[in-house]
Amino acid sequence: MRQYANTPPEKVPQILDAGVLKLLEQPSGQKFPAGTKWEYSNSGYTVLAMIVEKVSGKPFGQVLQERIFRPLKVKNTVAYEKGKNKVRHRAYGQMKKSDGWHESDQSPTSAVLGDGGIYSSIADLAKWDLALSEHTLVSDAEMQPALTPAQTTDGPAKLPDGSIVSYGFGWFLDPYKSHKRMSHDGGTMGFRATIQRFPDDNLTIIVLANRMDIDPEELALKVADLYFTDGAAAGARLRIL
């Protein structure tokens, strides 16, 4: 997208999953031999979505609807595709600039579904969290690869600064204050979000924000600190949303 570096976001054409694959096919050299290092990558999930389409013979959005959204009976979750569906009751992002707040929405890559492009609500995410806890979408055994930290030929995966990172398939697995944790943050064009799951404590905290000047993870962990400090009983699963 370098050719659009000086173009206003609303004027930049969006690319789809297939467009990402075309970009990946362009010769660019190898960052490092496969398996020797770890680096966070959205494009890998884009390729995965296209593999799902190839195997199922269906559009990825349809697979999500049939395999996840419909079984969970979610009402406000959609894999948005411009011209094909709509997002009901939606919020728009807000970005603060020198002259005040400005409404924002999608970036040039927001239409890519393999790594995002899903609009949802707090209530629907609570259903998804419960499904993960009760293994109603995928079994415990099927979930294990997502909870197994990546390893390189030199041992544990590391960030560019040399610090160790614990990352499975789509989940950061670093503990928080000795509490087992599954987590992930996200952000784009006026939106920021986090999910902090503490499976051994029966606690999940989700923060969705349509503004860029706050830190959802910081807010979520403040709530977690209150929960842990108060010695909350690990009975019924608690979702703080």
Brief synopsis:
The protein contains six helices and ten strands.
List the helices and strands and how they pair.
Blueprint: H1 17-25, H2 43-56, H3 60-72, E1 78-79, E2 93-97, E3 100-104, E4 118-119, H4 122-134, H5 140-143, E5 151-152, E6 155-156, E7 182-188, E8 191-198, E9 203-209, H6 216-229, E10 238-240
Helix pairs in contact: 1-2
Q: Could you name the key traits of this structure?
A:
241 residues, alpha+beta, disordered N terminus, two-stranded antiparallel sheet, Beta-lactamase
Task: Give Rg in angstroms.
Answer: 19 Å
Strand content: 15-25%
Mean pLDDT reading: 85
Give the strand line-up of the largest sheet: 7-8-9-10
CATH structural class of the domain at 1-120:
Alpha Beta
* CATH level-two architecture of the domain at 1-120: 3-Layer(aba) Sandwich
For CATH, the homologous superfamily of the domain at 1-120 is named as DD-peptidase/beta-lactamase superfamily
Q: Largest sheet at a glance?
A: 4 strands, mixed
Distance between the termini: 35 Å
As for the CATH topology of the domain at 1-120, it is Beta-lactamase
The helicity comes to: 25-40%
Order of helices and strands: HHHEEEEHHEEEEEHE
* Principal-axes shape call: globular
The total count of strands amounts to: 10
Number of helices: 6
Low-confidence stretches: 1-6
SSE-based structural type: alpha+beta
